[in-house]
Amino acid sequence: MGALDGFYTTLSRARATFGEGVPATGEEFDGSARLREMEAAVKAAAPDDRWQGSAADAYAAKNEKHAATYGRLADLDKRMGAEVTNSAAVVAAGRHSLDSLSNWVSDMDTSIPRDQSGDRMRLILAAKGIGQINDVIQQSTDDMDAIARRIEDIRKQYDEIAGKEEGAQALDHPLGNPPPVDPLEEIKRKYQVDEDPDGALDWEPGWPWNHLTSPKHVTATEARILDSLAPWELQDLNQTKEAAEVESKVSFPPQNGANDTADNHTDAFRHAYWNALMTQRFGEQWTRDFAEAHERLPGNPATAEAMDLYNNEVGRNIAMANPDATPAELADLVEQAVNRGDTVVVAPNSDGEKLAWSNTVPEGEAGTTSKSTVPGQAPNPAGAGPGGVYDPGQPGGYGTSAGGY
User: Into how many domains does the chain fold?
Assistant: First the structure.
């Protein structure tokens, strides 16, 4: 048995305590972004001037309390994710220290003579190496213990919030106060526009371009916006629509037949990507005005309307946050948003009356919107004309699956 065998045996056992593979970081445990969205949605549901009095004040106070709860949960999720990342860093540091120690002992071994005096030196080297292994293990243990204490504190705060919410809910309904606001229900309530007062019509561009296209059924406001566009702008607008239609079927292929493109992930991607492309080409304000006008058809189902308007906004926000992104990069970002649950689809098993986050419904299992409608608010047009110099090019070209970008 060699003088260093004991060291290498101890090293192997120590290395095994740190496991194999890349240690998981805290991103998958950090749901703070979604919780912040829910906090914002609840805050947006605060009573406005149309509802006043003691009931409104009580509801506003309860609404503020629930928003604060989402904020606290977001903070805790952020902290929990950070502690998981810290634990991954401890594992990585421990492995690195052991690897460095192994290399050092190996280098020292090669420099020691192969005789009796060298054997004595190797025994000293082995003892020193084992001592340093113990130091690494002790340091890692201390660090992990500190992380465990902080995680336990976070857990207690989670439990505290849960206990307060249960107690609050037990009191809420006997007192007659409204229940906590469901962010998805709030999206359905908020993301509605009224019917176009001038109705709808079959629109086509002026001569001679009308000979090249078929009439499109649009709202009167939508038609006026289209009439204000130059022929090349109409071409760009049509290409963004075609690109969104094609790319949506590539990123989220219809699961229940070729025509299964409504109320589901394909639909969510199409609207978000279409608005992202339009925002790059025509600007955010113009795109918002046009997208809202597009939804003002008479009898537009409420669930589908809210889904489209909300996903439109997601797409515009992605484009504004990534002004230099190529259309292919925008498509990737929108696909990530749908997979992450930033968009909404029609919830299954809800008779088409409810929305669901897109990451909570498997592809192919979204519901079908009901035909029911709810009153909407008149849009507040920005009055902005088309902006930007971005030319999407021709579908079928280089770039995304839809091409031309």
Answer: 2
The domain of 71 spans 5-180
Give mean pLDDT, residues 244-248: 94
pLDDT at position 53, please?
58
> Could you tell me if 134 and 247 lie in one domain?
no
Of 180, 201, 229, the residue at which a domain comes to its end is 180
Residues 6+ apart with CB under 8 A from 45: 63, 181, 186, 189, 190
Is the CB of residue 333 less than 8 Å from the CB of residue 322? yes
Instruction: Tell me how far apart the alpha carbons of residues 240 and 334 are, in angstroms, rounded to a whole number.
Output: 14
Residues 84 and 31: their CA atoms lie apart, in Å, by: 13
Lowest-pLDDT choice from 69-78, 175-184, 279-288, 312-321:
175-184
Contact 392, 404 (CB under 8 A): yes
| DSSP, residue by residue, 283-325 | -HHHHHHHHHHHT--TT--HHHHHHHHHHHHHHHHHHHH-TT-
Asked whether residue 100 carries a pLDDT value surpassing 50, the answer given is yes
Quick check: is 171 in a domain? yes
Question: Strands, E, within 111-263: which ranges?
Answer: 200-203, 216-219
Find out whether the peptide bond into 208 is cis, omega within 30 degrees of 0: yes
